[in-house]
DNA sequence: TTGTACGCGTTATCAA
DNA sequence: TTGATAACGCGTACAA
């Protein structure tokens, strides 16, 4: 059993509350007793119990972060913003990931609630149903990342991101443009798909369902998509991918089939991974303002925690990055 | 304020202890009262307080995981093993990352101690000093990943991994072999460097300090290393890199200088990123058994928690993966 | 300046 | 089968 405030009190010959005051740097306390107690605490290896402190304080000064996948670079940069925001506001941060498993996601949110975190931020929620259900009241306020239909959310405008990619391809002369999606019903797949469709429509290009194929957000999904696309009677000259990993898979599979990127086919991704600029060819892609999203999300959550007036969904602009993997259509 | 056991008791017209029993599925309790209370709890949106429960239980059934960088794929796969191990043993997991900041690392470990986690696992510790210091007694047992000189640790044999890479290069005919390291004093840099040196020595190849240049474990570090290497009067024909990201930087910079990999220079990395097999050229590298490391680490930690006898450092073998980025030396 | 008493939400022990 | 009581470690009125 760890040493408690009582142990120190006994050792110092004072009452537990005096120890508490000394340790908390209370103003009204004797300099010597304070110094003595603080030395004693260090010597005895005292570590205050957050469990007990939080119980009496009825708050934990902690926010819980729930993310889909650890390895997704989107979350990496997001966390920087989240941590910076939380720490500078005097909050600690707890993190957990659910690996795209909706059940785990619910468990983690529940676990954080039991721990009485002051607020929760969920990035990559499998579905927003559980969060908007009126019967389900949560202990702590919850902010969602990239789920703009949820009232307390901070998102990147993925629709607009997709739109710029497609516009870019159209301006390069492409007309047969494919989209390798990821989970059409998944909330992360929707905005890109809508942006893709709306932009084709905007330019009067006929939609073709054969050009929309499913991936899995990873390299293998991109690889599997290519044969289906090349097998079409009229194959695409440009392929927009759900993300950079998918694009890498697509480029590999194309190369395997003897298609050179961008000479024969243009390919674009989404995310702007650190290595996107160093892939061969370097990837045309879309960068989401992840750090800023993180900062905004924490601010929004803290407003909710402190019940400081209205909160409206926030949407930030992404950045289009043109590189080598897209080029004018070959004649 | 969340609903407490007392609120339910008042509503149900029973005592708080009855509610506690009903909720905990205690054997000796009336079927009807139990059902009634459980319904009431759900209706009132009751979420038990882990804070209070843990205080009286004097344990949290939680292990804290402290990792260096979220984006490092090493930690991604490690977490899978860690989580699987913990969950299957009935423990919950708390995660936090310190972004290579030793101060943050110490803060997080301290925070976890205050939270009274039952044990802590640190991966990528900046230094082991704080953990072996005799004066510093920790509340909870601590297991370190990839820090074999610490008594409670699980590591991959990076020395052996480096050895196999160098051996492979030597067998391909290379004699001028460079190493792009990362932080020579950093505990992650040492084993690879030793393996590199020992293997050259083993084959009677003279050491040349000019062939050891510093990187930063990232793409930019690899890029910066190349001019220094190519500027040598006798440049290397093979370059061993601290990790795959460094290798990607090196390959890019070589290409910029008109050097083709592996035609002109062979390059190898470390880690086996998911995309290492899909880079162009695909990367020769070393795969650490991350999942197994995670499982072992949890087992070791739980043995420590339960004070079940002796624990000795565990070292697991890595796997060498030969791909396209290394080839026989050009004559 | 310091000590006493109480409460935070929960579980466990003992008595009813 | 249920209720009263104490305890976990800490912070804070209030009293001394």
What is the gyration radius of chain A calculated from CA atoms? Answer: 26 Å
Which two protein chains have the largest interface (Cβ within 8 Å of the partner's Cβ), and how many residues from each? A-B, 50 and 49 residues
- Please state the oligomeric state of the protein chains shown: homodimer
Strand content of chain A: 15-25%
Question: What is the third-level CATH name, the topology of the largest domain in chain A?
Answer: Rossmann fold
Which regions of chain A have little confidence, pLDDT < 50, spanning 5+ residues? none
SSE topology string of chain A: HHHHEHEHEHEEHEHEHEHEEHEE
The CATH superfamily label of the largest domain in chain A reads Response regulator
How many helices of chain A in DSSP terms? 12
| Physical arrangement of strands within the biggest beta sheet of chain A | 2-1-3-4-5-11
User: For the residues shown, what is the average pLDDT of chain A?
Assistant: 94
Distance between the termini of chain A: 77 Å
Overall shape of chain A: it is elongated
CATH level 1 name of the largest domain in chain A: Alpha Beta
Total individual domains of chain A? 3
CATH architectural category of the largest domain in chain A? 3-Layer(aba) Sandwich
Helical content class of chain A: 40-55%
Major β-sheet annotation of chain A: 6 strands, parallel
Task: Count the beta strands of chain A.
Answer: 12
